[in-house]
UniProtKB/TrEMBL annotation, chains A, B:
Organism: Diacronema lutheri (Unicellular marine alga)
Binding site for S-adenosyl-L-methionine: L9, D84, G87, S112, I113, L163, H246
UniProt record similarity statement: Belongs to the diphthine synthase family.
KW S-adenosyl-L-methionine (keyword) present: yes
Lineage, broadest ranks: Eukaryota, Haptista, Haptophyta, Pavlovophyceae, Pavlovales
UniProt record, GO biological process: methylation; protein histidyl modification to diphthamide
Domain of life the protein comes from: Eukaryota
Name recorded for this polypeptide: diphthine methyl ester synthase
UniProt domain Tetrapyrrole methylase: residue ranges: 1-236
Amino acid sequence: MLYLIGLGLADEKDITMRGVEALKRCGKVYLEAYTSILTVGKERFEEAYGVKIEIADREMVESGFDEVLATGCEEHVALLVVGDPFGATTHADLVLRARKLGIRVEIVHNASIMNAVGCCGLSLYRYGETISIPYFTETWRPDSFYDRLVSNRRCGLHTLCLLDIKVKEPTLDSLARGKPVYMPPRFMTVNTALEQLLEIEASRQEGACTAESLCIGVARIGCADQRIVAGSARELLAVDFGAPLHSLVIVGDAHPLELELLEGFSASASGAPSTEPAQSQ
Amino acid sequence: MLYLIGLGLADEKDITMRGVEALKRCGKVYLEAYTSILTVGKERFEEAYGVKIEIADREMVESGFDEVLATGCEEHVALLVVGDPFGATTHADLVLRARKLGIRVEIVHNASIMNAVGCCGLSLYRYGETISIPYFTETWRPDSFYDRLVSNRRCGLHTLCLLDIKVKEPTLDSLARGKPVYMPPRFMTVNTALEQLLEIEASRQEGACTAESLCIGVARIGCADQRIVAGSARELLAVDFGAPLHSLVIVGDAHPLELELLEGFSASASGAPSTEPAQSQ
């Protein structure tokens, strides 16, 4: 059996009882560590649940896992995934490869940013397509996600923007030399995401995200020090959201109850406090 | 402190370790039992975690909870919610009322159908607005959700349809007499949802859900006997999905990887098996 176990959002306490039971059944346990991160290292899981955990990077999950699957997973194998196992396409692909080999796969669901973002006060029902914002480079400044944002805005829908994560990325130089040297991990901030969006807005001019657009920056959702701030893009550019992970919501046509809930996270001095202690809201 | 604790989707094992810790801190524990249901009763939680639980019906959560909040929640209070606490608007409203009274609220997130539906193989990023399908009556046959389905389809997006639940609904007769008598609980099936959608389609004729549209019926997601079947609306009408809860997905423009994953759940004899045992896929 291959178990894909969702870990939720913050630390070793966000795994479910079902997840812990599955974990303890497994001879081999991997932690997927490139599509998202927790606030704690694998050691905390090893201590809390008495298991030994190997880190699985992109290469391992996308190709190295074929060796694991080739064993038939008769000794139960677990892949721990931050959030829910189906938050990233790469895990759907793994399920497909396992299925082709006749290996049974059991899923242990958990919260992910896709549903936990509900805590910022906007109804989950009223989100349109989710977009991913990649880091711009000198020569690569894609804007296809802007089309999806325009489409959501036209339908009055909110847009969740997932922000780029660069973990274990080799430098171009080192690749050219054939001996990968890895850059330090980078996690896109709400501020960088907004700068890039405003740059695209300036050239496209379709009004999907202007300096005055109502947005919500969220950081470390589900953690004791989570931060949620609602305000115009211009206001949020000045906010320091702290440590990763960050996400951004572009607000569509908000209902009165939604606006009332957002007031509690207002960036402007006249509003209620924009952040509150210890996972509270 | 008021704790809103998500329970996930199936039974007492889907609560997180953080949720269990919070639960044990509380002097009063309520289980919200009208926006969704688990496959087990409150007794299983009481036995597993050594707490006493009161059932909170709609009336209790929407107005009766004001008495609980009036105590200031100095003795910690927990409201257990199936799925994630922000799956239903009613809980966002409760957070707002608590906040106005200066009561701290802590959220314990969990999986909900909004993200767990990722298990059927379609990318969560490519869903549009979620729709709720209410039971038709003789005199009330609303179709406003059809507009949102049309809009999603035009953008090529998938649509998650949440199906009506009637729990503790008084009969009209008994209301007239001023002494409520409750009807047995009802949970809309995939079949009823499709019948209603096809009836609207027949009058509106915008092609958002025809007998040939590719749909996915899902039942008891996250449970050992979950069922996922993909096929045309016509094919799914003939499928018995078994016990509640059911949901329905109307497929938008699917990518090749999505279609490959759906094959594993095909309703047609030529496809792969449409269901698999014990929470596996």
